[in-house]
Amino acid sequence: MRIREEIEAREQESLSPYAALSAATKGREFPSTPCAMRTEYQRDRDRIIHCKSFRRLTHKTQVFLSPEGDHYRTRLTHTLEVCQIARTIARALRLNEDLTEAIALGHDLGHTPFGHTGEGVLNEVCPHGYIHARQSVRVVERLENSFKGLNLTWEVRNGILCHSGGEDAATLEGRVVRYADKIAYMNHDIDDAIRAGVMTYDDIPGYFLKELGETVSGRITFFVENLVRNSGQDIRMDARGQQLYDELRAFMFRTVYTNSVAKKEDEKAKMVILRLYEYYTANPGALPEEYIRIAAESDVPRAVCDYISGMSDRFCISTFEDIFVPRAWGS
């Protein structure tokens, strides 16, 4: 037997009856010769890790725009934390860890520069709308790998699409990532908000600290253990765990995500995204060649959104400066 076949056999023997088996994948959009060593979900994970969009996450905002200091989360560090939490849950439930990891690593590939601020601007101005989960799927299906796409399995693409809202993922692995995403950002954003002076430890309601724990790791552990204890044919918490999860998320939106200090640079970020969108829709010939082809195949707004959303924060600012900020003569 090939190594891949041995791994598939072990999955059949050891994973939960509710797990998604690699050998039972619905497959890829385009036929692909199986790998001798890796399962299909392992291949998807590797393709995501090696793609350009994944590397750009290191320079994309999580919550705080252009923070001073090296310890704030970026979109990449958030992704890695989601991956770690999701794998822990998947292992405890005997689900497919490779599928879980692939979905987690790819779930935010379509995020814009400046986080949800950039997403909101593009959603308002683009006639197609803009939702980062859908764009993440577009990245892996169309934009990556020199615009040939990564040709990922259906289960990974479905998990990415369903990670943030609307319909539940078809696999339990995808549903695990959906919970892990929110568990990660709710708890690490508390840490970053305290570091930034947006809130203090004393602002956290006492019952959260008493029931969930006084540290980031303690609160993550509470939610992970609650999910593991209460999941089976579906991924769920008990009633009290879900209530605390919902209330913590509401607290973070009130205290951090709409906080004037945390969002003090938002208006500038919105202006940068909007001006770039207006410029490129009026001057599509200024787009890179690959995006000019997308404009011809689809339309100009679609191509402009694809181009801007793929930018890192720093490249977005640099592009804006090149277009709109005067430079000294001869420089």
**CATH H level of the largest domain: which superfamily?**
Hypothetical protein af1432
Count structural domains: 2
Helical content class: 55-70%
Q: How confident is the prediction overall: mean pLDDT?
A: 93
* Shape annotation: flat
Total DSSP E strands: 0
Span from first to last CA?
64 Å
- How are helices and strands ordered from N to C? HHHHHHHHHHHHHHHH
* CATH topology assignment of the largest domain: Hypothetical protein af1432
Q: Figure out the total of helices.
A: 16
Strand-pairing-aware structural class: mainly alpha
- Low-pLDDT stretches: none
> Any guess at the CATH architecture of the largest domain?
Orthogonal Bundle
* Biggest sheet descriptor: none
The CATH class assignment of the largest domain is Mainly Alpha
Rg over C-alpha atoms, rounded to the nearest angstrom? 21 Å
Strand content: under 5%
Description:
- By secondary structure, the chain is mainly α.
- The chain has 2 domains: 52-113 and 128-257, Orthogonal Bundle (Hypothetical protein af1432); 266-322, no CATH class.
- It contains 16 helices and no strands.
- The longest helix has 25 residues, at 172-196.
- The protein is flat, with a radius of gyration of 21 Å.
- The termini are far apart.
- The model has no long low-confidence stretch (mean pLDDT 93).
Short description:
Helix content is 62%, strand content 0%. With 331 residues, it is an all-alpha fold.
